[in-house]
Structures are given as C-alpha cells and as structure tokens.
C-alpha cells in the first residue's frame, strides 16, 4: 500500500499511536487463526442495498475512529500508528449470492478472512438474503475494534436507514454494595485447567456453532445476575467435558471482558474493554449441585469485586511491553515469546456476555428490528474455546467458537448440550 498523497494546502492526515491492546494484538497475529470478531443481526424483512450502503458509510463517518488504517512501517519504527481517513478506502458492504448455505459461507468468511489493517476501515459487512428475512454479517479485525463498539456503529446505521430512534435502553440497576472477593479460591500462580482435547480438525482456523436458548430464570431479589449464571454454566460445562475426557480436576479461571463505556453516540470506538479473570476452585465445581445457591453467591461476589477494581486493560506487564524502548520488530518477537512461555497460565476460556442488546436495531417498517444477535470472539490456542452470549427479544443467543486444533463440530455440539443443561441447573431459589 502506498502512502496517501495530500493535495497542496490540505490538512495532513491525523495519526494515532496504537493503544496497548491494539499493539499486543498486532504483535501476535497469526495467519492460521485470524483475529476476527463476527457479529450477525437477523432482521425479519428486506433491505434496499444502495440505501443500506449509504447509511453504513454515513455511520462510519459519524464515528471517525472506525475510519482508520495501519500506517506501513519500517522495521526500526518504535510504535505502530493508525491513520484516520475521511472516507473508506474500499467498498465494505457486500451482497453475496443468496441461496442454500449462503449464511454458513458468510460465517466461514467471518472466521477465516480478516479485513486487512492497511485498508480503512478494518471491517466488512455482508448482507445475506434468506427466505425468512435478512442477516447482516459484520466481520471486525479485533486488532482495531471490539464487538460493543461495532454494535454501536450498527445502531447508528439502523437509525440513519430507518429514520427511527435507536437510542440505547437504560442499563439495569445494580446493587450499590461492593463485596470483597472471597479468599477460598486457588492462587493465580497455579496453572488453570485447559479445555480437554476432543477431535482436532484437519484444517486450521476456528469453528463456530450458534444456538438460541431460553433465558434462565432468576428469582426476584437474587444476589446474583444472569451473567453470574452464565459464568457458572460455562465453568460446569468445561468441568464435565474434562471429566468425560479423562482430565483430572483443576482450578479454573474464566476471562470476562468488562466494558464501562457509555452506549450512546459518544461511545469511544476501538478496543475499550478490560479483561478480568474469575476464579473457580476444583472442589466447588465438583460439589456444585449440592450447593448451587452458594456457588452462585460466591461467583456474584467475585465478579462484582473484579469489576469494581481499576485495572489496566491487559495488566501492567502489557504496558511495559508496548513502551517504545526498542523497535517494534524486536518488541513483537519478545511479546510472542513471552506469550508462548505464559501459555500454561492463560485462563481456561473466555466468556463474553454482551447482556441485553441495548439497541433496538430497528431498520424501519420494511426490514424491521433485530430478532436475534450473535457475536463470537477469537478462539486461539491455548484457550481454544470462547463462549459469547447476548439476549434479544427475551431469548439468549449463544455462540461457541473453538480452535480446530482442539475441537470439531461434534465436540461443539456436545459442549452446547452441556452448557444448556448446566444453565438450567442454575435456576434455583436462593437460600434465606
């Protein structure tokens, strides 16, 4: 890609150094497992292609931090930079041929083909026509952007296209108290459980399974949230999977993204979540069905305490790795080496719960509002499995994404069944 030439007298392009999360991700990119986020929005009606393309382009301009590309760099440069652009470099809205398997192929592309970082914006939107409506499949390069930020851009697109208010709903009210994290969990220095290997696939990359479930019941006045129920269901799913595959019980840590950004039009666009690890002792998972209320209460205490603590997005070590004390090429090699060395201490899996989708995503009378929204996050080894959930129209939309080096589709179906079963076991009445 050649440098952009600016006309005489024009304002020079704005350049922004990569934030810590972007730079660490850029250091560790792998062709065999692209760092993509997949978002799909199911609408009951039809969209006009030209009108949607105009609305999406206008939405991109409304959120200029998404209109950016990586600046090509010499090997000796001390940091990566984004260059902001006034318009897209390439056409980002596509309309694949409809027909049997069109959605599955769009999903495969979302997992296998990352939008290039050297073109602005690093996203791709495909509009898939089905017999019962339309599906928007948005592919995002996770080095540049995260799912909540791109969902905000889709909400702006819906508002421009349909002319209807797509303001976010008010967030749920949470208890004000912040309990301390219980001390009865395993040390973070102990390597956590890994997801036991199932049947590795023959090709590299990620596999995906999406399903719709009933939201779990939660008695009024419960000290825990649906997010805590999902966290417990994820831990129990993996614990049972590992038992079935002969792995001995080990403590577990589940990474949970925390997003404190506003959801309105002022939302900062980029990678804005911070990651915290929720611990589980092997013993409490073994006896979960004898004391489910207790496990849910302890999980709620841990998640609240972790959310309340200020913490750099990737911890203090990442900030040191991204400080410009050496050329980018040298720091990239060091980062990749440290990542490999730290693999045994990487969390067991990642659970990203978007919660209730805050926007109606209403595209107007003909297309309608979102009936289902699925997300999926990258599932690179050593985790090899990510769990992503969102709720729309009173239903829970679950996506399981895995590394084909670890699991195949049959394994994913078994994990889905285990998740559904254990989510149901969290529907208990709290003890007085």
Average pLDDT figure: 90
Q: Report the biggest beta sheet as strand number plus sense, adding barrel if it closes.
A: 6 strands, mixed
Q: Could you give the count of β-strands?
A: 14
The fraction of residues assigned to DSSP E strands is: 15-25%
Tell me the count of domains.
Answer: 2
CATH architecture of the largest domain: 2-Layer Sandwich
Can you offer a commentary on this structure?
There is one protein chain. The chain is of the alpha+beta class and 432 residues long. 42% of the residues are buried. The protein has helices at 20-27, 49-62, 102-112, 147-162, 226-244, 282-286, 292-308, 316-321, 328-341, 409-425; strands at 15-17, 36-43, 68-70, 81-84, 93-94, 123-130, 133-141, 206-214, 252-258, 274-280, 349-356, 372-376, 385-392, 395-403. The strands form three sheets. The protein has a six-stranded mixed β-sheet, with helices on both faces. It has a five-stranded mixed β-sheet with strand order 5-6-7-2-12, with helices on both faces. Strands 1-4-3 form a three-stranded antiparallel β-sheet, with no helix packed on it.
Give the SSE layout:
Blueprint: E1 15-17, H1 20-27, E2 36-43, H2 49-62, E3 68-70, E4 81-84, E5 93-94, H3 102-112, E6 123-130, E7 133-141, H4 147-162, E8 206-214, H5 226-244, E9 252-258, E10 274-280, H6 282-286, H7 292-308, H8 316-321, H9 328-341, E11 349-356, E12 372-376, E13 385-392, E14 395-403, H10 409-425
Parallel strand pairs: 5-6, 9-11, 11-13
Antiparallel strand pairs: 1-4, 2-7, 2-12, 3-4, 6-7, 8-14, 9-10, 13-14
């Amino acid at each position: 890609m050649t440098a952009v030439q600016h006309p005489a007298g024009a304002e020079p392009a704005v350049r922004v150094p990569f934030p810590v999360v972007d730079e660490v991700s850029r250091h560790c990119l792998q062709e065999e497992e692209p760092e993509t986020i997949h978002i799909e929005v199911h609408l009951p009606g039809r969209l006009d292609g030209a009108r949607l393309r105009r609305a999406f382009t206008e939405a991109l301009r409304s959120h200029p931090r998404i209109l950016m590309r990586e600046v090509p760099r010499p090997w000796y440069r001390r940091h990566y930079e984004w260059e902001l652009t006034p318009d897209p470099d390439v056409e980002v809205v596509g309309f694949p041929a409809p027909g049997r398997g069109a959605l599955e192929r769009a999903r495969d592309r979302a997992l296998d083909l990352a939008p290039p970082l050297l073109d602005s914006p690093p996203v791709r939107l495909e509009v898939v026509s089905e017999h019962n409506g339309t599906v928007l499949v948005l592919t995002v390069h996770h080095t540049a952007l995260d799912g909540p930020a791109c969902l905000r851009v889709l909400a702006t697109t819906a508002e421009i296209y349909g002319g209807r208010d797509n303001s976010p709903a008010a967030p749920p009210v949470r208890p004000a108290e912040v309990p301390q994290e219980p001390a009865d969990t395993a040390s973070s220095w102990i390597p956590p459980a890994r997801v036991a290997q199932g049947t590795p696939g023959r090709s590299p990359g990620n596999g995906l399974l999406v399903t719709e479930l009933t939201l779990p019941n939660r008695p009024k006045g419960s000290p825990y949230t649906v997010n805590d129920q999902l966290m417990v269901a994820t831990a129990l799913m993996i614990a049972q999977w590992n038992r079935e595959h002969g792995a001995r019980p080990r403590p577990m840590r589940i990474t949970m993204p925390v997003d404190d950004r506003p959801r309105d039009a002022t939302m900062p666009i980029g990678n804005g979540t911070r990651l915290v690890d929720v611990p589980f002792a092997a013993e409490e998972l073994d006896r979960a069905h004898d004391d489910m209320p207790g496990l849910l209460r302890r999980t709620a205490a841990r998640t609240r305490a972790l959310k309340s603590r200020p913490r750099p997005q990737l911890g203090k070590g990442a900030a040191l790795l991204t400080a410009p004390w050496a050329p980018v090429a040298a720091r990239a090699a060091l980062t990749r080496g440290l990542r490999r060395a730290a693999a045994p201490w990487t969390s067991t899996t990642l659970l990203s719960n978007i919660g209730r989708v805050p926007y109606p995503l209403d595209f107007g009378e003909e297309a309608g509002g979102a009936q289902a929204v699925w997300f999926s996050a990258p599932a690179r080894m050593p985790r090899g499995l990510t769990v992503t959930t969102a709720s729309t129209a009173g239903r829970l939309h679950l996506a399981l994404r895995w590394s084909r080096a670890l699991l195949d589709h049959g394994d994913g179906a078994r994990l889905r069944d285990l998740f559904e079963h254990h989510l149901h076991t969290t529907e208990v009445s709290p003890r007085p």
